[in-house]
Amino acid sequence: MLKSSSQPITGVTIDSHQHFWKIDRGDYGWMGPHVEPLRRDFLPEDLRPLLARAGIDRTVLVQAAETEAETEFLLGLAAETDFVAGVVGWLDMDDDGFPERLAQFQENPWFVGLRPMLQDLDDDAWILRPRVLRHLALVAESGLAFDILTFPRHLPHVIEALKAIPGLRAVVDHLSKPAIADGTLDPWRDHMTAIAAFPGVSCKVSGMVTEAGPNWALADLAPFVDHVATAFGEDRLMFGSDWPVATLAASYGEVGHAARALLGRHFGPEGMAKIFGGNAERFYRLA
């Protein structure tokens, strides 16, 4: 199935954050024994029935390995999977060849954004390296989306990068993985308020159950959702399942139910339609 660049997908529900992987590809370095249930293949036909059950029409497929080979693999899956609307890939932003690689991948209509795995890098301030900032400016100029994968300790550096590249269209993945299991809101709360002050930055309501742990309850998640709901509002929030990572703590249906229950306390039907579809379509410029 070929993607049309001229026909919008308005009116459908969108999961803004899910993954696929094929273990024998061999580049998922983060998959250690601590995530043993994830060390198997997760592919489109595994997700398809779950989407149907949850009433989700389309998805945004996000990278899970720091290699161009995985990005190529995901683009190939997107081209043959009817429910995938776009791919957020990986390129080495600290490499001199980045501008040429970015231009090449932009030619692929499924390539809608970039995500460096900031949470896994040794340098918490990596995003502020001069070469990375220069290349981040190219991402802003390109109009591509930029996914921010961080822990709360990274957020002060992200704020400085956003100040340096004011035109960047970015989204914070997984609420920046706050310490939900411990109920620790600060200083995460102030940092997220500062990030929300940048009008081009959104937030994914995703990844919460794994930060809360297998015995999570809605009450554990509520203070964190309440804060981003107030800070970002209905126009800059997106639902994401983080499937299959989320299966460490919840089913696909449970993740969707939790998001709907908690966000529904803040937003009416129009706002919920944006969060569960329209915002992702607009942010990632899906078609």
Automatic annotation (TrEMBL):
Q: Which GO terms describe its molecular function?
A: hydrolase activity
Report the leader peptide range.
none
Q: Locate the Amidohydrolase-related domain: which residues?
A: 14-286
Q: Which family does it belong to?
A: Belongs to the metallo-dependent hydrolases superfamily.
Protein's recorded name: Amidohydrolase
The protein's organism comes out as Aureimonas glaciei
